[in-house]
Amino acid sequence: MKIAYRQFCPTDIHKFTRINADPLVESYGIGFYFQYYSRWREYFLVAENNYGEIVAYIMGKNEGIDENHHGHVTAVTVRSDYRKRGIARALMERLEETSVDKGCYFVDLFVRKSNTAAIKLYQKLGYVVYREIIGYYTGPAPENAYDMRKALPLDTEKKSVIPLREPVDASTLPD
């Protein structure tokens, strides 16, 4: 089955239900998705199958200044019946290319410590655990997160991926 990649459009929001049903997927309110669409459109992509069904998406942004200017993966998810087909890899590569074009030094993301499948994927893509964040995920299943990073070509010395030795508390992170 052929997969097509394109930018998110507002009517796609109604097609996310099946993807967001996964318990490891963070779901957001409609306003959150539209904020990303309006501010960081080039970072919000979907993958669809031959039938026009959205089977995966990625949303992100760029933020920070100077050597802290980076791309951020806010969410990447693939429908369970489409996993292990290289779709997440393709979406991540597109987000990384956008970050390079925007002059970013690295890309980062947060992932639940228990999500070993995602962690392995990110490691295969060149991401390293930069730090652990205590209390990052709240709600019915609170959990710590890993902040994983991948240096981009602008970070020639790979300073952005030198791991921190001590975990940080989520309450100390900027909004």
From TrEMBL:
It catalyses: N-terminal L-methionyl-L-aspartyl-[protein] + acetyl-CoA = N-terminal N(alpha)-acetyl-L-methionyl-L-aspartyl-[protein] + CoA + H(+); N-terminal L-methionyl-L-asparaginyl-[protein] + acetyl-CoA = N-terminal N(alpha)-acetyl-L-methionyl-L-asparaginyl-[protein] + CoA + H(+); N-terminal L-methionyl-L-glutamyl-[protein] + acetyl-CoA = N-terminal N(alpha)-acetyl-L-methionyl-L-glutamyl-[protein] + CoA + H(+); N-terminal L-methionyl-L-glutaminyl-[protein] + acetyl-CoA = N-terminal N(alpha)-acetyl-L-methionyl-L-glutaminyl-[protein] + CoA + H(+). One of its GO terms (molecular function) is protein N-terminal-methionine acetyltransferase activity. Its EC number is 2.3.1.254. PROSITE patterns: GNAT (PS51186). Pfam families: Acetyltransf_1. The keyword DNA damage does not apply. Keywords: Acyltransferase, Transferase. One of its GO terms (cellular component) is NatB complex. InterPro entries: Acyl_CoA_acyltransferase, GNAT_dom, NatB_acetyltransferase_subunit. It is an enzyme of class 2 (transferase). Residues 3-153 form the N-acetyltransferase domain. PANTHER family: N-ALPHA-ACETYLTRANSFERASE 20 (PTHR45910). Belongs to the acetyltransferase family. ARD1 subfamily. Catalytic subunit of the NatB complex which catalyzes acetylation of the N-terminal methionine residues of peptides beginning with Met-Asp, Met-Glu, Met-Asn and Met-Gln. Proteins with cell cycle functions are overrepresented in the pool of NatB substrates. Required for maintaining the structure and function of actomyosin fibers and for proper cellular migration. Component of the N-terminal acetyltransferase B (NatB) complex which is composed of NAA20 and NAA25. This is N-alpha-acetyltransferase 20. The lineage of its organism: Eukaryota, Metazoa, Ecdysozoa, Nematoda, Chromadorea.
